[in-house]
Design a protein that fits this description.
- The structure is a single chain.
- By secondary structure, the chain is α/β, with parallel strands linked by helices.
- It is 30% helix and 22% strand.
- It has 12 helices and 20 strands.
- The strands form 3 sheets. Strands 3, 13, 14, 15, 16, 17, 18, 19 and 20 form a 9-stranded mixed β-sheet that branches.
- Helix 2 runs parallel beside helix 9, helix 5 crosses helix 6 and helix 6 packs parallel to helix 7.
- The structure holds pyridoxal-5'-phosphate (PLP).
């Protein structure tokens, strides 16, 4: 019997110390990813930058880690921006995204000196230009475009196709009008364009095709709009993460080399100088670094299917009901045990929420477990904590950062009392209970 260790720490011990469900991140894995980006992308290709898309997993500790590693930070809302500023992240290395930015979000970005504002629509450009003018500032802008590539991934995480709610299509009037407007407005510094083709991709084909289309469009814009030059191109993120530690790691260079080679070639072809190029992966940095530890609460064998129900579920990880994410599980106290034949029936690991869609693994391979045992899901570092809800008044699990044999709490578990904070009772409902009929 060998117990599961994560970040060099015994997971059985972690569950005892911090309770379950529990998110555990291996700091070494995150730092290795940052080092890989610096070595295989930033050092290999001059005039490049890399951001971490913090919506995948954002906490004060994580923001500090990214700052230490010298990467940029991508935020998408007031909450994420305030968190970044609170963690003292250098604002000039922050970029702000979003297809529905509020006045408050845009003005904070301008006032704080955020390095890039990725503008999603003509309307937003107009609002931002007015705000910048009033403040006597110049907004550093990239325009988000939809490259018209239908990424090979789940429809809910594909973003680059024509008709997407994100960005401006390369074809048609909208982009041309936006570029003209930006070039003519003294308070907008239009640095270039941005695309993000989709998420959880394992083949660079969609990214490469997007580069070809975007450079072609940029060349057209250069010819049509006086003064416009593609000085900067953000290539987005979307690099995939493997389901369990036995599968080979997806190297960043698989995407960045392919895109940079194509970018160099296409720019030459159109007689353009190669722009400064940046990426903004989220999942790839953190997904494989994270596991979630659960305790088994109930096992129910029905004809043809056995349900193993745990003490968490869609509240701490909605990715399965949301877009069919696939996970692998392991028995924490016996990590090498072979899969058990549950009487030939299918085994589903389900959560404790009051929804039939509350599934963690539809068809799991798992050794024999009993109530009270611990299981862990691999590859849960991205879009789990950040997507967690309090459905059924479940408190959000604690987050532990482990590495080199040490483990520290970086987010406390929410208690039932925490969940009541902010709730108010109007006076008329405070009256003593009347006699029941
Ligand atoms: C979500 C998102 C990313 C990061 O996507 P990952 O799949 O986590 O790498 C990057 N850019 C934009 C615009 C996004 O919306």
């Amino acid at each position: 019997m060998s117990r599961l260790f994560w970040g060099g720490v015994d997971c059985t011990e972690l569950a005892r110390r911090f309770g379950t469900p529990l998110y555990v991140f291996d700091e070494t894995v995150i730092r290795d990813r940052c080092a890989e980006v610096k070595r295989d992308f930033l050092s290999r290709w001059p005039d490049t930058g890399a951001y971490y898309a913090s919506k995948a997993f954002q906490t004060q500790a994580m923001i500090r880690l990214v700052a230490q590693e010298g990467l940029g930070l991508d935020v998408v809302s007031m909450g994420e921006l305030v968190a970044a500023l609170k963690a003292n992240f250098p604002p000039e290395h922050i970029e702000l995204h979003g297809n529905a930015k509020s006045d408050e979000e845009l003005s904070l970005a301008l006032d704080a000196g955020v390095g890039r504002i990725i503008v999603d629509s003509l309307m937003e450009l107009d609002v931002l230009a007015n705000m910048a003018e009033k403040r006597g500032k110049i907004a550093p802008v990239l325009l988000r475009v939809t490259p018209g590539v239908d990424a090979h991934t789940h429809a809910y995480i594909a973003t680059g196709q024509t008709g997407s709610k994100f960005g401006l299509p390369l074809e048609g009037e909208l982009l041309l009008r936006a570029v003209r407007f930006a070039m003519e407005h003294p308070n907008i510094d239009l640095l270039g364009l941005h695309f993000h083709v989709g998420s959880q991709l394992f083949d660079p084909g969609d990214h490469v095709q997007s580069v070809v289309r975007v450079v072609e469009a940029a060349a057209r814009l250069r010819d049509d709009v006086p003064g416009f030059e593609l000085r900067e191109l953000n290539l987005g993120g979307g690099f995939g993460a493997k389901a369990n530690p036995a599968e080979p790691h997806v190297p960043v260079a698989l995407f960045t080399d392919a895109m940079m080679n194509t970018l160099t070639q296409e720019c030459e072809r159109h007689g353009m100088k190669r722009p400064y190029a940046s990426t903004e992966a989220g999942r790839w940095f953190v997904s494989e670094a994270g596991i979630t530890i659960y305790r088994v609460e109930s096992i129910k064998a029905l004809p043809g299917i056995t349900y193993i129900a745990v003490d968490g579920g869609m509240a701490d990880n909605p990715r399965v009901p949301l877009y069919g994410a696939v996970y692998d599980a392991v028995a924490v106290e016996d990590a090498d045990a072979p899969a058990y034949d549950w009487g030939g029936s299918k085994v589903s690991i389900v959560g404790k929420c009051c929804e039939s869609g509350d599934v963690l693994i539809e068809d799991a391979k798992l050794p024999s477990v009993k109530r009270g045992d611990l299981i862990a899901l691999y590859n849960t570092g991205a879009y789990t904590f950040s997507m967690a809800s309090n459905y059924n008044r479940l408190g959000r699990p604690a987050v532990v950062l482990a590495g080199n044999g040490n483990a520290e709490l970086i987010v406390e578990r929410q208690t039932p009392e925490d969940l009541l904070r902010g709730e108010l009772i109007p006076a008329r409902l405070r009256a003593e209970e009347k006699a029941r009929i």
